[in-house]
Write a structure and sequence with these properties.
This protein is 23% helix and 41% strand. The protein is an alpha+beta fold. The chain has a single domain, classed as 2-Layer Sandwich (Alpha-D-Glucose-1,6-Bisphosphate, Chain A, domain 4), CATH 3.30.530.20. A hairpin with a 6-residue loop joins strand 2 and strand 3.
């Protein structure tokens, strides 16, 4: 239905500093290791960490029976950084490359880093999620990405 948008949320407390978590974003070699959800691998085609910059990432499904949005086995995302507050917050405009109108549109993805007693709570808020991305799949993917980030950064 036109005009209806969806917001998906995920969060996790990670036993790492906000600085360590931000570094995991700022290093393109690190980003490809933890950002892809379970069952996918990533390749960066470009990376420019600044407001107005962004990255282009190809996410390939390891299971050949999975269907990608851009090709038979891949998703391609174009990301533009609209806000960067080191160690605090990163806001991205995310667009999937696809001929499917249900996947079209720009999703806003906000990553927030909040210091808590046990480390840092990482909160992901996705606004204007395309209707072609099933909520269950997106929630699973967000939780998987947070688990990967925890495994990558926890001491």
């Amino acid at each position: 239905m036109p005009g209806i948008t969806r917001t998906d949320l995920a969060s996790r407390v990670i036993r790492a500093t906000r600085q360590a978590l931000y570094r995991a974003f700022a290093d393109p070699a690190a980003l490809v290791l933890w950002l892809p959800p379970k069952g996918m691998r990533a390749r960066l085609e470009s990376f420019d960490l600044r407001v107005g910059g962004g990255f282009r990432m190809v996410l390939t499904y390891e299971n050949r029976s999975a269907r990608g949005k851009a090709s038979d086995d891949s998703d391609i995302v174009e990301v533009r950084f609209t806000e960067i507050r080191p160690n605090e917050r990163i806001v991205q405009q995310v667009e999937f490359e696809s001929d499917d109108p249900a996947v079209a549109g720009v999703m806003t993805m906000t990553w927030q880093f909040v210091t808590v007693a046990d480390g840092t709570e990482v909160i992901i808020r996705c606004d204007n999620v395309p209707s072609g991305i099933r909520k269950e799949d997106h929630d699973t993917g967000l939780r998987s990405t947070l688990a990967n980030l925890a495994a990558f950064t926890e001491n």
